[in-house]
Amino acid sequence: MKKFVRFRYRVSAAFVVAFLVALVAGCDQEPIHPQFQLDMVALRSNAISDEPNGGSQKDIATVLEAMFGTPDEPFVLPEMNLDIKKIRMAAGPVWSNEKGKHGLFRQHCVHCHGITGNGHGPTAPFLNPYPRDFRAAKFKFKSTERDAMPTTDDLRHTVNEGIAGTAMPSFKLYPPDEVDALVEYVKYLTLRGQMERQLVNFIVNELDPSEGDRLVSVDADGNVDFDREYIVGELLPEEVAKWEEAKDRVIRPDPQIAPSRNRTTEQIAASIAKGRELYFGTKANCYTCHGPTALGDGQTTDLDDWNKGVKEFLEKHEGVTAAELGALPVRNIHPRNLRSGVYRGGGRPLDIYRRLYAGINGTPMPQLGPSTPGGQGTISDEDIWHLVDYVLSLPYEPVSQPPRATIPQNLRVRN
Length: 415
Description:
By secondary structure, the protein is an all-alpha fold.
């Protein structure tokens, strides 16, 4: 018995849990190891087979494991430009030795984001908003254009600062190397999700299962193979390039148009007044979602991209539940209450400018700036800055006395 106790304290907590579960289930049971989960909404929406003896779902899982390894034993290819040392520091069960800590993602993040990074951890159903599903490769709060990936600094900023008004905490007090390891692991999980979508598209568009086409081939000796030249040589670089291009797609306001820090009170008041007009105007059209009093009570029945796919599938397949898809219940997205003074993407004028310029990726929040560099935006750059001033003034404007003259007739409250 003493021997067992000494042994117990030498191994990781995750191993002890697995050992006890195996002990209860029976000595002939193998230890439990966490596995990455496939995106069942995408697979079933595209009619990807799950035949028990080797359908396309199993093929996708096989290729992904060959490229990325498992949650306990991660693996990366040189073409991914990821740091395997950082990833190993974040992956696997929680333990430490004289060389440092391990299992950081499982220790700090998995209870919300899940083992797969699908935003479906055990605490996720109780949170609003739901934790981010990294597999979609869509990040809300970043410095880059709407459809661009975040920079590494963007991810580091989110981990360090957390996201105000949500369950995402700040890790600013943690050592920089631990923060960097978590950031690298988020990139790893996201890239894995990107490649899963690529494999789904490849099966749907390039293969014909009725003709015996398979993503994976098995020879007479049972050796598994797949088209590495195409998948690793062509599909993977497409997704890796999106990360590398991010630094070139950072939104940098024109310093000639950005407001001066030395503006007078009268100049700021004039800018706020113009921003108020834009808020209720037909171009920016902010009041439609955020409401005539900016309390976020305008359009409240819309969905973000993560919930949209689940809802569309459930509407087409009567009797199927979100839980069967490994998804969370569909939940509407509510526009931000601009009077609360809580800004999830940061409260600096630059942060608000970027939210207005690019919108918020994956949500109904549209972009007001141009969709391509040098293009025409919904409103001018100067007008975006006027809106920034108005948004930042809203927490100080009496909500009971909104500027009636600027509210459209159909939205005015009748006495």
